[in-house]
């Protein structure tokens, strides 16, 4: 491996150069001092470099074309080179001789990129170009069954999945979108080779092991932890699956939705069958008992993307968060442009480690988009809360925390809250209304759990070489069937690359974070409701406008990743463990109801 010496003139940099290249046996006290200076240097260099990378990435994501693809790849390449060099220099410091803060910062440095490059410059350039290319392919993908005039992009195809109840139309939209991922397969195979090589150079078994090392516990322990959580929530999912399959049989017939078998994946209202809220009308427990059509209210009141975003901002401000900076409004992309390809998958951006925060989302006036905007602002307020931390601690306590903030707020968007902001009628409390409401939420929150788990199950095995390229698609469907109990709509082959039809695969974003978030957010919600002094069932609690809850929330966010997540979790919830007791408590009424409904049914697949 190449050893790189940094030649700089400042005092700090001199320490850095010395520590990285020459002295190996200095006394512990000097080591610690040098390490502090080294970490300080890292933090400022990383902040500077990532600013450039963020600018290139944002320009690319909001205007996909060959030039931005190239510039994004180049900026990434520089970041990857910096990381390789910095990690190499960091080897001069022995963790046991450092103070805990420096040791943690150096540990986090090693985990700082989601796909580390090999030190070989050619391979690094290849990796950077590949990741940039795959992301663009996904963002610009279109299904064109009958020439250029017939093209449909992801937004149009996912709309069909959400709204159509025509089996053949659903199947075509599903198949069409999935066909766009075929060309990504070859690049993904090479990507896995290169990123694994990078991870191995850093001392990890493979890239999956590296991802699993970012949870303040040994990677193998984390694997067990994730399985333990899945075992806790699996029965909840099983009940929902059973009930929904029964309802879909009524809509599409038992031939198409056979008893005791996985559900065809195109019938669940979502391209990936990951959240099922769109089929609520097909499965509504008590038709007419609730009038909660938020989408209709948004349309009727002519909510535009800015107003939707302001509504989310208001929620956070009601908790005591600051208003969003003016630049947020000037620089965010809130609506889909007509004249260029953009990455429509919603995301939140921390551009400069300071107050330049943005979101990018092709917002439409629907309930699902409304919830997603609140989700994205959760990321944004996390960024703003930890902006005074050093760069290496500017992250979620773990990545599941980052995903859980906005979703915790989503849980407070109760019928009473929606009524208060004028998006729903007055709530007439009844058991039927509660069950309807819980069903609507369960279609998102419980339905998501197996999907959240299986994506990285697939990737962990791919990175470990347990799933070979010639088995990519078959292994994918085996997991989807086992975990989710869904089946491919039409026969698949290894020409297909169905994992690549999901954003986070070509964009190489780890996914277990969402699985963790879907459990954690209920723990956060319960703790914040307690802080707010709320008494009553969890699903009726909203922390909107509650300053005590807001204070507790903000205190947690301000810590970023500066300490092990267990400490941070304990501070908010009193426990050091993620666990499913809160989600089970939250859905208690629905779970009891489902048990009744499913009596006599042969559940499972
Ligand atoms: O990717 C997202 C967010 C951006 S962090 C919109 N989510 C996952 C997905 O869409 O697959 C939120 C739920 C899960
Ligand atoms: Zn997110």
UniProtKB/TrEMBL annotation:
InterPro entries to which the protein is assigned, alphabetical: Peptidase_M2 (IPR001548)
Name this polypeptide is given: M2 family metallopeptidase
Species for this entry: Steroidobacter gossypii
Top-level taxon in the UniProt lineage: Bacteria
Coiled-coil regions, chain positions: 32-59
PROSITE patterns tied to this protein: PEPTIDASE_M2 (PS52011), PROKAR_LIPOPROTEIN (PS51257)
Keywords, sorted A to Z: Coiled coil, Disulfide bond, Glycoprotein, Signal
Gene3D superfamilies, per database record: 1.10.1370.30
KW Repeat (keyword) present: no
């Amino acid at each position: 491996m190449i050893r790189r010496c940094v030649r700089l003139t400042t005092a700090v940099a001199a320490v850095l150069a010395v520590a990285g290249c020459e002295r190996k046996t200095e006394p512990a006290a000097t080591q610690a001092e040098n390490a502090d200076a080294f970490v300080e240097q890292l933090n400022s260099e990383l902040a500077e470099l990532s600013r450039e990378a963020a600018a290139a990435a944002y320009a690319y994501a909001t205007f996909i074309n060959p030039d931005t693809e190239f510039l994004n790849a180049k900026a990434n390449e520089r970041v990857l080179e910096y990381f390789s060099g910095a990690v190499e220099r960091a080897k001069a410091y022995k963790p046991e001789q450092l103070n805990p803060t420096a040791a943690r910062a150096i540990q986090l440095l090693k985990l700082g990129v989601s796909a580390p490059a090999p030190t070989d410059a050619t391979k690094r350039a290849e990796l950077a170009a590949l990741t940039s290319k795959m992301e663009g392919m996904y963002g610009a993908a279109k299904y064109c069954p009958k020439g250029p005039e017939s093209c449909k992009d992801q937004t149009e195809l996912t709309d069909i999945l959400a709204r159509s109840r025509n089996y053949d139309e659903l199947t075509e939209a599903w198949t069409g979108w999935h066909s766009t991922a075929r060309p990504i397969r070859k690049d993904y195979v090479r990507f896995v080779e290169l990123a694994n090589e990078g991870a191995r150079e850093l001392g990890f078994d493979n890239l999956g092991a590296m991802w699993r090392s970012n949870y303040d516990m040994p990677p193998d322990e984390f694997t067990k932890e994730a399985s333990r959580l899945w075992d806790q929530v699996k029965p909840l999912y099983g009940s929902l699956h059973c009930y929904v399959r029964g309802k879909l049989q009524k809509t599409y017939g038992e031939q198409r939705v056979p008893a005791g078998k996985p559900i065809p994946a195109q019938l669940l209202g979502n391209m990936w069958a990951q959240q099922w809220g769109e089929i609520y009308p097909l499965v509504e427990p008590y038709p007419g008992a609730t009038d909660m059509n938020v989408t209709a209210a948004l349309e009727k009141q002519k909510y535009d993307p800015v107003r939707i975003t302001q509504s989310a901002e208001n929620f956070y401000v009601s908790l005591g968060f600051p208003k969003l900076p003016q630049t947020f409004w000037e620089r965010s992309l809130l609506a889909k442009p007509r004249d260029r390809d953009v990455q429509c998958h919603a995301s939140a951006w921390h551009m400069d480690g300071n107050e330049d925060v943005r979101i990018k989302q092709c917002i439409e006036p629907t309930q699902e988009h409304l919830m997603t905007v609140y989700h994205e602002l959760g990321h944004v307020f996390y960024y703003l809360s930890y902006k005074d931390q050093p760069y290496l601690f500017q992250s979620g306590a773990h990545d599941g925390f980052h995903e859980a903030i906005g979703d915790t707020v989503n849980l407070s968007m109760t019928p009473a809250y929606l009524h208060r902001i004028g998006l729903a009628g007055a709530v007439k409390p009844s058991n039927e209304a509660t069950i309807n409401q819980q069903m609507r939420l369960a279609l998102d929150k419980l339905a998501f759990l197996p999907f959240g788990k299986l994506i990285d199950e697939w990737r962990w095995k791919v990175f470990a070489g347990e799933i070979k390229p010639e088995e990519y698609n078959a292994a994918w469907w085996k997991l989807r069937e086992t975990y989710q109990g869904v089946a491919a709509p039409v026969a698949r082959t290894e020409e297909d690359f169905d994992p690549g039809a999901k954003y986070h695969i070509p964009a190489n974003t780890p996914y277990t974070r969402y699985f963790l978030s879907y459990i954690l957010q209920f723990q956060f919600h319960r703790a914040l409701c307690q802080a707010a002094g709320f008494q009553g069932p969890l699903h009726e609690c909203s922390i909107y406008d509650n300053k005590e809850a807001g204070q507790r929330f903000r205190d947690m966010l301000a810590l970023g990743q500066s300490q092990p997540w267990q400490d941070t979790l304990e501070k908010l919830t009193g426990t050091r463990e993620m666990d499913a007791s809160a989600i089970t408590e939250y859905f208690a009424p629905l779970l009891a109801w489902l048990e009744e409904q499913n009596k006599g049914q042969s559940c499972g697949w």
